Amino acid sequence: MAKYVFVTGGVTSSLGKGIISSALAKLLQSRGLKVTIQKFDPYINVDPGTLNPYEHGECFVTEDGAETDLDLGHYERFLNTPTSQANNVTTGRIYQTVINKERAGDYLGKTVQVIPHITDEIKRRMTLLGNANQYDVVITEIGGTVGDIESLPYLEAIRQLTRELGVHDSLRIHLTLIPYLSAASELKTKPTQHSVKELLQTGIQPDVLVCRTEKPLTKEIRSKLALFCNVNKNSVIEAIDAESIYDVPLLMLKEKLDTIVLSKLKLKSKHDPKLDNWKEFLGRLKNPTEQVNIALIGKYNELQDAYKSILESFVHAGAENECKVNIVSIHSESLERGEVLSKLKNLHGVLIAPGFGERGTEGKIEAIKVVREKGIPFFGICLGLQMAVIEFARNVLDLKNATSEEIKPRAKDKVIHLMPDQIKIKKKGGTMRLGAYDCDLKKGSLASKIYQSNSVNERHRHRYEINNAYLKQLAKAGMIASGINPQTKLVEIMELEEHPFFIGVQFHPELKSTVEKPHPLFVHFVKAAKSYKHEKA
Ligand code: GLN
Description:
This protein is α/β, with parallel strands linked by helices and 537 residues long. Glutamine (GLN) binds at residues 354-356, 382-383, 406, 461-464. Glutamine binds next to β19.
C-alpha cells in the first residue's frame, strides 16, 4: 500500500510547491523508496495544451503524449523517472469524466453533486497511481493557493481521504511564505497563521509547514509558528531562498524534512540518502571553468516559464561541460526590425525555440541566415527546425517564396506542410502529434555521433512537418535528413554538412533532459559553443 503526501500552498502563488515536492521526492528516492509525484490543477481546461504560454508557462509533454503542467518537468528532472497522463489531472478532466458518466446513465435517478460525485472522482484519481502497487509514496501537489474558490473540492477530497486512509498513511504539508518587513527588520508569521486557519476551515490540519523565507527562521519564529498553527516545532521547516533549485533537496535534508515525513508515515528508509551523483552535479554546476553566451530566440521571452525545460536543459548541459551557459534572450520580433547582426554579436551559439503561428517567424529566419553563413553553432527545436528549412530553401535553393503551410496555407513552395493525419482534424485539444516516437539516425551523421546510437526515441508536439518532396533538393545543396521516423518516414532531424554545428530537430529533446541524464543534443551544442568561442579568440 502506498502512503500519501499532500502538498498545498498558502499566502501567495509561485512559492515553488513543485520544487519542494520534487526535493522531498528526491530525498525519499535517495533512501531507496519508490516515489512519484502528481499535480492536481484547479482550472477548467481539460489539459494545459490549449493554454497560451503567457497564461501558464510551457506545456510539458509526457512519454504517453499527455500535455501537462510544467511542474511535471521538475518531477522528471529531479527523479529521472518518467511521468504520464495519470500524474496530471485538472478540474476540467474531473468534470468531463463525471458528466460523461451522468450522460451514460451511471448515476441514473440521482442528483449529481460536487460532494460526493466530484470529490469521489478526485479521490479515485488521487489514489490511482498508489493503487497500482508500484510506489511506496505518492506525493500530490494541489495547484493554486488555499482560499481560492476553485481548490475547495480538492481540499474536501483530501479531508475525506485523510480519514479513510488512516493516521499513518497520509500526511499534509503546507507551503507558505514568511515575509520579511525591512522597515520593522522582522519576519512576519501572520499571513501563515491566516493561511493555516483557512486550511483548518476546510477540515485539514497541516502536519508540516514549509516556510519560504529570505532570512533564516529564528527559534522564536519556529516556536510561534508551531504554537499558532498547531504543528510540532520540528515540523516547521525553513525553505530559504536558494541560488539554484537543485540546492533545495540538500537544504531540505539539512532541515530533516525527509526524516519527519518518514517518521510520521511510519516508513522505513532502505538506506541512508545516496546523493553522490546529485552532489557531483552541484559541484560541477557551481564551479564552471569557463562560460559561453547562447541566444534563445523565441516569442514568449517576457515569461521565463515559457521555455522552462529548455533553460533547465542548458543548466544540465552546462554542468556536464563545466561551463556556465549565459542565456541571452532575444525576441524574434525585434530581429525583424533589422538589428540581426548587432543582436547576434558576442554569441557562441543560437537556439531557435519552438512556437506556433506566424508572429516572429521572419525574425527567426533572418537570424538563421546569419548563423548559417557565419558558422555559429545552431540548434533548432520544432518550429526552430522548420524555420531553418525555410531559410535554406529561400536563400540556398533560391525558392524565394518558400514557407510553411502554418504561415501561408496557399503558398506554392510549402517546404513545411501539415502532416497528412492532421488534415481532417478540426478540434484543438490534444490533437497534435504528441508523445514519444522512434527515430532512426543516419550513419556517420552529426546526430548519430552525438547520440552514439542508430536509433532514438523522443517526444513530440506538432502539427506540421518537413515536406518530403523537397528532401532531394535540400540534400543536394548540403542540408540532409539525418533522423527519420522508421514507420512514417517523417523527418525528425536535419543538419548541414558544411557547418561546424547546425542541427534542427522536429521533437523536443528538452523534455528528456534530467540532472542525472543531461540530453546529449544540449551537451554537444554547449560543447560546440565552447569550441566556437575558443576558435574565435
Ligand atoms: N507550429 C509548429 C507545428 O505545429 C511547431 C510546433 C512546435 O514548435 N512545438 O508543427
